[in-house]
Structures are given as C-alpha cells and as structure tokens.
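= Protein in question =
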Amino acid sequence: MRATALLRQGIVDESFVVPHQALIEFVAVVTRPIAGGPPLLAIEDAHREVEDMLAQFPVVYPTENTLRTALRGAALYRMSWFDAHLWAYADERGLDTLWSEDFEHGRLYGRVKVIDPFRAS
C-alpha cells in the first residue's frame, strides 16, 4: 500500500513528523464504536499505539503562531478548524507536502500541496 511505503520511507530518511493533533484524532477515531459495533481498538490498545508512535516519530506541538496561521487558513481556504490546524503545522514549518485524505488531493494551499496517501499514484 502506498501509505505504508510513504511511512516507511519517512522513517528511513527521518522526514516524517507527526502533529500532536494527529495523535489526539487517532485515539478519538479508533476508539469510537463503528456503526453500533465495537471500536477498532480498545482504549488501552489505542494508548499503546500512541506510545509506539511517540517513540518512533518527532511530534510537533502548536505555538501561538500555529493557532494564528490556522485561523488564517480556516478563513482563506474555508477549511474546518481541525484541518486548518494540520495545514498550519505544515505551513509554519515550511513543509511542501501534507499527507492527508481529509483535503482535496493535489490542491495547493499556499505553498503546501496536499497529497492523499491512500490514493493510487
């Protein structure tokens, strides 16, 4: 799968960083019941997964500027508040690519291009 290959490459070349918000959203999504059934992971398992990610990847945290950039992005690009934060991390750090399935694939938001890692190349 393309997403797995991209993740592995990011580990090898140390180019992969994780916004702390992505870890928060991960726990929220995988512990939420699916269509009335059980969640993907029990809360303890989700916490273990986050601990593993913390051990493997640099985590970036918001600054006041991150929040101001997110406010600007939410207004300018009509992003959701949460998506604007993810974009702000990339924009603030001068990253040219944001890997996410939550945005319009291939769109340029300022200097940050969004690529859906689950989409065929």
